Structures are given as structure tokens and as C-alpha cells.
């Protein structure tokens, strides 16, 4: 329909403040951190599926996350355009790409920019707010949604309202965007009716493009070139790396919103959280009478107001503490003061500086064909559990320093070994000598699981020579 | 020599207050918790190896721990008699067995009872104290070592001194044993010169036996019968289970020390800790400028006065906390207020009540032939890493519900499969079908390591039929 809103979901973030559950290799927006039924990315997508309000969504994400995005979209049964950023260039470049992508369909398309990692339970209220703000967008304003503050937060920017916007019921001109205040400043801002800036923007594509041209032409030039030379890769549109890399790294807030004269704000009052810290995650989860939110295998003794999140098979216990966050994963554990959980960002920087691989990589590594997970490591061996989704097919490959033993524990494997193809069934094994050319695939209807025992003088991931790969790696 | 002291080391405890590092399946006295060079049991044994003071030691331990005791003794190169308790019957029964065992060698033998889980760095001071107290023991007293208190502890019993003991330099008669006091009581006790009761007793065997006969004859009867019907089992003396089970469960403190008129105490001032809680472990470990004691892969941000102990490969992190204990193991994590770490005992009781296997069993299970460790578990499979010490030999066995794949990753395996014996070398695998009769041994000079992949409808430990076992299981 002509008055549909074009939702564009930005999900390029790495969510390091929710380490160790969220890491570069699987950022928070793709995990079931706050809702076991699905990720916040999936909830965001589902929030914009009502065709009476929204057009087909577009997702802008990091190239590395493309198979996760595709799989999670398939799980919720939603089709979307997927644009791949070769690298992170901050939000101005992403919004420029979004505006150009929408303008290609309709120069006056009304675009809604959304983050993939927010929690908004009341989807109808959100859709109603989008429709109300779209009125301003159609009239040529660049609208934001201003969240009604629930506490004097110091980790959000604020929006001071100006006069009411003529012809846009409930909306105001923006008097000023205010950067993250201190506690006193937050208190004063709330007293005068300022709103939280949650990063939701609605605008006509042509209006945003004109403002980008005026305020940050280099960003727009880079975005235009990146789209012009983009390549289609399976179902993805891969932005041109050389061109996109020319975009200055700047936020849309700084580049346009703080400078434009067209900024408007629609106050909204639905419950919202950016679940940006473990403290915020605790805030949106259900809690027991002692104020504890627990997930997984957890036992507590005299513990209160805490978040205890146990991933995997391990047992996590807490004795005699108040206001703590405990997050355990198969390879890393975080224990933090809840009030200081924002400092997890510093921690991750410290982990990177110390060279800990757990800073960015998860134990379970997702691949287009499924995933693998290291389960044991010795001096001259490594053991992995590998799952291949039905139809999945690894690259044709060989290793110089390790032999591999595969034992199928579920499903059926199709194994190509030096040109010969054979089926390996549950409770059967096959041996792949050093230097042999081999390939693993799942020809069946259920997931294939196998245990891989690697034996050799070196078992690093980089001892791999790929010769064919259906995923274009 | 005639005036040697017979050390008898009691190591039957389970150390649940140091869970999850210490568990029933591997109690704290056998772990390298406080000193990476060895266990407190080994340090205790080494403390009594000076032949000018001590005779060959005797160890009294749980039957389940016998191979750990034997291996740890071999590691430090000390020979000892090893008496196995079929079950725990508290300390009076153990002391009765100790006195009888020593009396069999020399009715007037001077016995020193020691716990296996204490930290005493100053071995010469300890030996000197034992020699000084032995003077009183030879004169017919039942002597204790009274530790000079360093704080008003409420988790130890105290000893109030009476008049000086005639003929025993530095020693006093015991006025009274006082049970664990409250904080105020502890303060008063220390002010009047009372000492900590650390459970060290020195006595002539005949004197203790007479006191046991007088105060708790049922304990002595049970101990006598248990030794009379004991069986030799490899290098162990296994007390008769039926007889030992008749011993009333009571402590030597309650049964004898609080009633006898022969109690004497020698004040000692060497540094001592029973490392009974994580707080106490923190107290004996080296600490950095922030007061933190760390072990393993650990990173801290603005954390102070804490113990962070990471076992295994995992990374453990703490942000913004003071006075906490964090202990991570491959299958269980404890986070506790340091001041309340004594409540870990309650936690373990809670874990048992909830049926968590981690309450008592470690991931790595020690066996007479080496150890095994589960590294992965699925619906119809389980993966283990198995290490067999040189010369080790598992029982001849079969399973009804699972087949097994063994991949040797280090050393050489001798595999017996339905009567046929073959050698399986590093990077070779062998398949053991369901129902096959098989046996694994390490005929080599280095440890044998293999990955076992079990596949079947049931992979529990109890699906095993043993037909031959060199360890008499």
C-alpha cells in the first residue's frame, strides 16, 4: 500500500556489555537472552509484520552474521531484504544505505529505523506510535520516538521538546538533543519533560537523503557507491567493501539529527528497554519473591535481587549475595556487581588486550551449514561436536597436520573421501588420513551430529585448504 | 626407635564446605587447593617423615579413597599402613582403631592423631611440638596441641588451661573443653588465654585404650572386632564392615577428651589453618595488592579482597565486587559472600536434596587404573576422555545398551575384544559392538589417553557387567 512504512532493522552491534552470553561471534540481538522463545532480533522483525502498517522489512547487518539472520528469519517465517555491511561504519552510513534502498522502491517512502536489540512487549502500541509519527514524516519532518523516562538514567541521551508540531497530533518539534547527562542533569531533564532518545527514526527517504547531502555528503557518496557496486551473494546484497569503507564513521544523531531543522519527536509511553546491560536484562525478566531472575541449572542460598543465568549443562550456585549478576557459559563465567554491570564493556576490552579468545569467540561457532563446538583439547588432539542441518554441506577440504576420526551419533552423513562418496550411519565411524581431500554433508531429513576426533601435531582452525564451497566462502 | 611417635593420619572427611572443588568423590585433603605442588594430605604425610621423630605413618581413610591415597603416597615416596573404613563412624571409632593398630606393634607406643586437611607451613616447629607433647603422653597424659588464637573465631572449639603439668615443660592440664562459642564468648576465652582445639592428640596406646574401655566400651568393642576380622586387599587393610558398623557414631572429643581426667594441652604458636571454608583458603593463599588470591585463567576489574579459583580451561571474570569467593570447575560454579562461605555446607545439602549429581561427583572420576571424564552428552550418546596409567588395566566388561568407539590420542592401548588381543596406537581407532566382551589396558611406559564415543539407547554408568578385575572391585 502507498502509505506503508518501510521498516529497516539495524543489527550490526556486537553487544559486548552482555558478555559472555553476547560476543562478536553471536551478538545479543541473536540470542534468546530475555525470552526463551526467540531473539530480540526475531521479536523486532515480528513487531513490523502487520501489513496494514508495514512493508517488507530490510535488515542491515554484518556480513559475518548473514547466515544467522537468514536462519532466524526463516524460523519466524518472515521474508526480508538483507543488506550486508562489509565492516561497521556507525549509524549514519547505515541510515544512508537504508534511505537509498527505500528510495529505489519509492522516493517518498516513509522509512522507520529500528534497532534489533530492544525489548518492547506492546507491539500494537508500537505500531500505533509508528503510524502517528509517520504523519510527521510524510509532512517532511524527521521524526523520533521519545520514550517516557521511568528513572533518571545516565546511560541514554535525552530529547528536549520544543513547540507542538502543527498537523502532527501529539508530536513536538525537537528543541535539543542532549547527550548522556550526569545524575543531576537527568533529574532536571525529566522534571522539564524531556524524553529518552531510543534511536527510532521515521522519515521520507528523499528528506533524509537531502539532509545527508547537506550535512555529511561523504557518507552519502560512500553509501551510493557501495550500493551501486553491490553484489548479490545467495539471498544477500553485499555492499561494496572498498566504497563502503570510505564512509566516515559517525552516528546519525551527530551527523543529522543534532543539526537538522526538521527534527520532531512523538512522546510514547509503552514499556521499553534496550537491555544494554545485565542490570537492564534483570529489569525486563520475571523475578521471584526474592527479586531473583534465574535461567538454567541454578541453586541459590540466601541470595536476593540478582540475575543468575546458566547456559549449557553446568550447575551455577550463589550463596549469601545481593544485587549480583552471575552468567556462566561452557567456556567463560562473569560475576559482577549488578549496579556496575556497565563495566563489562571495560572487561571485554581487557580480555581482548590479554589475548583471551573468549572475548569475541563463542565455544559454539555457527556456520552456514550448522555449528561446531570444541568439547576437549589436548596437546596433540582436539575433539569437536559437529551438527549439520539437513541439506547442509561443508566445503571440500584437507588438512596438512591432522587426521580426523568421525563417529556419527545421530542422522546420516554423506562423506566424500578422495573422490569416493559413502554414507555413514549412526554408530558408524570413518577415518580421514592427513592430507586426504574430504567433504561432509547431511543428505537426510534430521540434523546430523557427529563427534570429530582430530589427532596431529597442530589442530588450529587455520590448517584448512578449501577447494569448493557452496556458501561462497 | 623406641621413642618414635606413631603418626596416624585421619583422612575420612568429605570437605563439602569447599564445594565445588572438594566433593565426596575427591575431597579437599586430596586436592591441590592451597598449594599447586600437592595436596594437604601429602603435606601432612611429609610433615611426619622425619625418622628421628616419627615412625612409619598409618593412614585411616574411606574405602573409596584407597587408590587416591596409594597414588598420592607413591608420588611423595612415603610408605604407610593404610586402614580402610567401610563407612564413616566419626572420630572415636577411628581413634580406637588407631590405638589398637599401634598397640599391636607396641602397647606403649606413643600415637599422634593428625588430620589430613590442615595447613602448617613450619614443619620443624610442628615436629618440636609433637616431641614436647610426647613427654606428657609417655607420662600417661592424653595430650592435645592448643593453637594460639589469631582472631575470635566462632567455628573452633576452645581449650581452657588448668595448672601447669608437672614434668611436662610448657604444658598444662586441661581445665575444660569449650564448644564453638559465639563472638562474645570467643573474645572472653581469648582474653583468659584459652587455645584452639585443632584435633591433634598424643597418647600412649594403652592409656587411650583404657579410657575408651571406661567411657565408650561399645566403640572399642566394634573397633577390636573390625580389626580382628579385617581382610588384606592388595596393600590395604580393610576393616570388617559388619563389625565396624556397630561402632556408635561419636567424636573422640565428646567420647573421651571431655570426660577423661588425663587431658593435657601444649600451647603452640606456629601458623595453622584447617582451611575449612573458602574464607580460610583465601587466608592462607598469597594475595596481590588488592587483596585478591587468584588461580587459573582469571581476569578482574575493580575487584578486591576476593578469592577467584578457576579450574580447567574456562575463563573466570569478576567486575566490581569486594569480599567474594568465585570457584569455577568444568561442571559447577560457586559464587559466595566470603564472610558467609561457611554456608556452602547448607548449599551442598540443598544440592543433594534437589538431586544434582554435582553435589558429590566430580566431572573427573578417579579409578585405580587412572581416570575418566565426561566431555559431552547427548540424547543417545556420550563422549569421555579416558586416561590409563602405565600398567593400568580396566575390568573385563560388556554393556547391553551401548556400543563404543575408542580413538587413541596418546600412547598405546592393549585391547581385548571377544578373546582376541590387539594393540591400538595413537591415531588408531577400534569399535566395540554392543554386547562384546572387552578390556582396556596400558602396556606402555607413558599414560594412555583415548576418546571414547558411546552410542546407544542408554549410556549410564550402571550398564556394565564386570567379569574380571585386578583391583578386586
TrEMBL record, chains A, B:
Residues 297-351 form the MannoseP isomerase/GMP-like beta-helix domain. Keywords: GTP-binding, Nucleotide-binding, Nucleotidyltransferase, Transferase. InterPro entries: GMPP_N (IPR049577), Man1P_GuaTrfase/Man6P_Isoase (IPR006375), Man6P_isomerase-2_C (IPR001538), ManC/GMP-like_b-helix (IPR054566), Mannose-6P_isomerase_type2 (IPR051161), NTP_transferase_dom (IPR005835), Nucleotide-diphossugar_trans (IPR029044), RmlC-like_jellyroll (IPR014710). Residues 7-284 form the Nucleotidyl transferase domain. It catalyses: alpha-D-mannose 1-phosphate + GTP + H(+) = GDP-alpha-D-mannose + diphosphate. Residues 357-469 form the Mannose-6-phosphate isomerase type II C-terminal domain. Pfam families: ManC_GMP_beta-helix, MannoseP_isomer, NTP_transferase. Signal peptide: none annotated. Transmembrane segments: none annotated. Its EC number is 2.7.7.13. PANTHER family: MANNOSE-1-PHOSPHATE GUANYLYLTRANSFERASE. Belongs to the mannose-6-phosphate isomerase type 2 family. This is mannose-1-phosphate guanylyltransferase. It comes from Methylobacterium iners. The gene is algA.
Amino acid at each position: 500500500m502507498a502509505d506503508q512504512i518501510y521498516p529497516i532493522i539495524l543489527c550490526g552491534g556486537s553487544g559486548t556489555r552482555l558478555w559472555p552470553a553476547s560476543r562478536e561471534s553471536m551478538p545479543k540481538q541473536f540470542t534468546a537472552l530475555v525470552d526463551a522463545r526467540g531473539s530480540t532480533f526475531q521479536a523486532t522483525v515480528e513487531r513490523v509484520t502487520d501489513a496494514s502498517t508495514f512493508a517488507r522489512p530490510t535488515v542491515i547487518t554484518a556480513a559475518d552474521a548473514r547466515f544467522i539472520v537468514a536462519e532466524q528469519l526463516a524460523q519466524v517465517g518472515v521474508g526480508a531484504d538483507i543488506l550486508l555491511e562489509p565492516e561497521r561504519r556507525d549509524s549514519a552510513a547505515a541510515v544512508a544505505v537504508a534511505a537509498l534502498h527505500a528510495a529505489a522502491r519509492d522516493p517518498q517512502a516513509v522509512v522507520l529505523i529500528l534497532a534489533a536489540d530492544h525489548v518492547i512487549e506492546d507491539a500494537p502500541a508500537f505500531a500505533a506510535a509508528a503510524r502517528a509519527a509517520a504523519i510527521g514524516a510524510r509532512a517532511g519532518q524527521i521524526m523520533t520516538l521519545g520514550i517516557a523516562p521511568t528513572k533518571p538514567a545516565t546511560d541514554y541521551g535525552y530529547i528536549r521538546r520544543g513547540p507542538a508540531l502543527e498537523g502532527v497530533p501529539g508530536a513536538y518539534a525537537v528543541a535539543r538533543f542532549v547527550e548522556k547527562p550526569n545524575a543531576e542533569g537527568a533529574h532536571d531533564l525529566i522534571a522539564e519533560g524531556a524524553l529518552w532518545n531510543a534511536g527510532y527514526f521515521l522519515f521520507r527517504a528523499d528528506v533524509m537523503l537531502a539532509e545527508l547531502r547537506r550535512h555529511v555528503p561523504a557518507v552519502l557518496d560512500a553509501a551510493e557507491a557501495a550500493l551501486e557496486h553491490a553484489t548479490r551473494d545467495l539471498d544477500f546484497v553485499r555492499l561494496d567493501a572498498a566504497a563502503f569503507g570510505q564512509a566516515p564513521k559517525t552516528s546519525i544523531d551527530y551527523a543529522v539529527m543534532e543539526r537538522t531543522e526538521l527534527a520532531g519527536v512523538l512522546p510514547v509511553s509503552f514499556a521499553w528497554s534496550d537491555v544494554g546491560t545485565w542490570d537492564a536484562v534483570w529489569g525486563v525478566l520475571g523475578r521471584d519473591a526474592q527479586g531473583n531472575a534465574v535461567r538454567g541449572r541454578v541453586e541459590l542460598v540466601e541470595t536476593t535481587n540478582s540475575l543468575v543465568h546458566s547456559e549449557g549443562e553446568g550447575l551455577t550456585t550463589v550463596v549469601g549475595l545481593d544485587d549480583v549478576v552471575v552468567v556462566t557459559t561452557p567456556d567463560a563465567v562473569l560475576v559482577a556487581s549488578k549496579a556496575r554491570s556497565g563495566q563489562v564493556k571495560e572487561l571485554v576490552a581487557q580480555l581482548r588486550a590479554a589475548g583471551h579468545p573468549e572475548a569475541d569467540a563463542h565455544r559454539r561457532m555457527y556456520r552456514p551449514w550448522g555449528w561446531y563446538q570444541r568439547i576437549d583439547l589436548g596437546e596433540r588432539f582436539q575433539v569437536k561436536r559437529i551438527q549439520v542441518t539437513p541439506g547442509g554441506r561443508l566445503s571440500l577440504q584437507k588438512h596438512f597436520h591432522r587426521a580426523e576420526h568421525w563417529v556419527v551419533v545421530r542422522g546420516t552423513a554423506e562423506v566424500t573421501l578422495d573422490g569416493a562418496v559413502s554414507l555413514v550411519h549412526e554408530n558408524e565411524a570413518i577415518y580421514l588420513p592427513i592430507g586426504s581431500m574430504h567433504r561432509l554433508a547431511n543428505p537426510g531429513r534430521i540434523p546430523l551430529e557427529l563427534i570429530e576426533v582430530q589427532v596431529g601435531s597442530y589442530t588450529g582452525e587455520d590448517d584448512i585448504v578449501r577447494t569448493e564451497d557452496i556458501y561462497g566462502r
